[in-house]
Every structure is written in structure tokens, then in C-alpha cells.
Amino acid sequence: MTDQIRSSHDGGVAVLTIDAPATRNALTLDLSAQLVEAVARAEADESVHALVITGAPPAFCAGADLDTLADAREDGLRAIYAGFLSVARCSLPTIAAVGGAAVGAGLNLALAADVRIVGKRAKFVARFLDLGIHPGGGMTWMIQRLVGPQKAAAMTLFGEVVGAEAAVECGLALRLVEGDLIEAARELAKPAVEAPRDVLLATKRTLRHTASLTDHSAAVDAEIEPQIASLTAPAFAERLTRLRAAITGR
Fold first, then answer.
1. Which range is the signal sequence, renumbered to this chain (predicted)?
2. Residue 206, Cβ neighbours under 10 Å: how many?
3. What is the CB-side half-sphere exposure of residue 237 using CA atoms within 13 A?
């Protein structure tokens, strides 16, 4: 079977699955390029309101393919990064459904999503120093923003492996799912699917912008223009009419 990124667009959600079971979904240059293309197709499809990234069981993603990594220099590394960076830069809301090990570049892929949900077999492993290489792809920036400097140091410098329950406890994952991860991801995505797509994308852009602000008034200013645009859009008028009808029973 050829290693591939399987893609399905259904019910407003694009599900992208890394399917390379022989290597536990390790990212090759080809798979990273396929992932870039799959993310771009989801963004271009106006019926898609959210994107889910996952790996064919039992792993999420075992990292970069070792043969590819051994020969990589700057261009090669950036080509490996391209796959998970396409998720990080995605204009759509993104969910990583992590059912197994997310290692190295696979950890980066999970970190790149807006939200992570985990199955009981999930684990997050930095592994870079274990291989004798420096972290890359923005891993040190992403992990510190999510779990703080102490937990980030434990994972990065001391090789601490974070399991599913611990990931939820430290804020690395949103919740532990006992059942079907993809169905749970679809359920989580429902409000995004039901929202006006243009307002949804604008809200994600604003979240990114305000994350770096330190002043409340600057955040108010950042939000005012897109909020006014949404208030004058037909979608708001239609929803307001339905809400008033529901309240009055007419």
C-alpha cells in the first residue's frame, strides 16, 4: 500500500489521515507535500468549516522519516516542516485527534492544531535530544506557549513522556475521549460547522492577532471592525429573525 494522506470532506469537516502504517505514520518529504496540498484543498472548499488531522492507528505520527532526516540540511528540513506548518497556518479551525504516539515532528504536528483531543493510548514525546538533534520547526515556541516553561523543559530537556491523562491535566490536550476520536472531533467541530464561514475565519484571524497583544484596549480595537462587519451581514439578520421568532413563538 502506498503511503498517503487520506482526505475526506463531509458534513463541513475535512478529515486528513496520515496513512503510512509500516513506519507508524512517519513524515517523508512526499507525505509532507501531500499534507500541504490536502490542507490547501480544505481551505479552498467553501463547504469546509473545520479540519481534523489524525494518523492511521495505532500511531498518530512517529516523527520525521529517519532516512529523510539523516540526509536533510536546511532545504530538506524546511520541506519536512512544510506539512505541519500548513496545519499551523491553516485559516480553518483545526483539531488534532491523537490516538497514539506523537513523536518529534509528529509532536509538532499535534502542537500545530488549535485543539488536541486524545485517546487513552496517546502520548507526546519530544525525542529530539534522544536522537542527538536540536528541536526544530518551532517546537520550543509552541510547547512553551501551551504548557509553560517548566513542563516544556521537562519534555524537551529531560525527555518526559506525557500520556493522555497528563496531557489533559497540563493543558496540552483539551479532553480524553473514551470512544471514537474522529466522531468526537466532528462533535467538537459542530458549532464551527454551523457558524457563518466568513465570521468563523475572521474570528480565528483575530485570535491569532490578539494572542500577542498585552493591552485590553488594543484587543477591543482589533475586534471592532470585524464585529461591525458581521453585524451588517445577511447571516446575522437571518439568525436574529429566527432567534426572535423562537423567543416570541411566532
1. none
2. 16
3. 4
